[in-house]
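hey so i finally got around to running the thing on that chain from the lab meeting. sorry it took forever, my laptop kept dying and i had to restart like 3 times. anyway pasting the input first so we r on the same page abt which one it is
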Amino acid sequence: MMIVYCGLRHFYIRHYKASHAAKSGHSAFYILTHNEKVWDFSPELKDHGFTGQAKPQSVLHLDIPVISVPIALSDFASCAEDWHRFSRQYTEELEIEYPHAWYLRFSQPAIFKQFILDFSQELELKEQDGIWGAGQSKLVAKLAAHNRGGAGRIVPPGQTKAFLSQIPLHRLPLPELEALDKLGINSIGELGKIPLPELGSHFGSRTASILHKLGCGEDLVAFQPQQTQEYTWTIDCTALEGFFRPLAPCELKPYLKQGVEKLASMLRDQHKTAGQIKLEACLNQGTYFKKTHQLKQATDDPKVLTRTLESLLPDDLFAQVSIAAGKLEASSHAQLAMFWESPAPKIMDDNLTNCAQIGIELPRRERLLMLWEECFS
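ok and heres what got predicted. didnt touch it at all, straight out
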């Protein structure tokens, strides 16, 4: 079992500038704060010596205005949904830490390694900067992401103690750092070697238990996967090239068909079927419309889903539309897989640079299906 930490750098500033800064029409650098701490900032400020550890009130004398803006993390949750959907193609076990950071848990080494390769490639395609790390716990995975590079970001369980002995203790935001420093403890690994009774004599039993767990690379809160309740697809008709206005049902249907095909693809990728279709829309006069249909039999067939959706459309103009496939069930293929005996999958070479594909390049979905067949058949 391996846990992977994924993080996106300058995630908040990128989306803030896209939604707010462009509207102002003025050039400026931004410092985004949360709970009075620097959460993100314009990358250009690095050239002027600004870091994430600086105080939000730091005064920078530049030719371009520097604006400090408090943000609510919940406002950015939807901005990460595409990355979560991408990740769920490889595993359903996903835990969100912050909008810019999440954890994944893998039981199959081949799929785990394929995700790492594809995640790095996806960052390049989207021209985004991100980090990842892998280990036996969330803590080890996150520390690997922030402190290692290359193949060293993968910390096998047997190498956890050696890895933690190399990570400075100050990498953990502990209020007891000064006291631990006086005891001569310099690394996280050293903290894990101190007997629990000895720690207890200095910090009390409760704090000692927490410190000992961290020193051993254990999570204070176990991995808690978020369960997907439904898959959604939305469209803003007033922003469509060639229209820029609300659409009539006949104009909307080709777009709905594309949306349903994407939903069906998500369902198949996760070996799920949908037992419910929900349509929500903002109509021409600003009226809100919502209708739900329960399917007689759960399905991932785009033709069935499209026919059902079209039957729900009111005779009106649509400004915005959202469709959701809910009441998810395991597909018959996934249910049968529960009774198959899983042989050990073929392990790919530990050196990630040797994983390059030779010959015909298959689409990601086809490669994933081949991996799933290899692991479960």
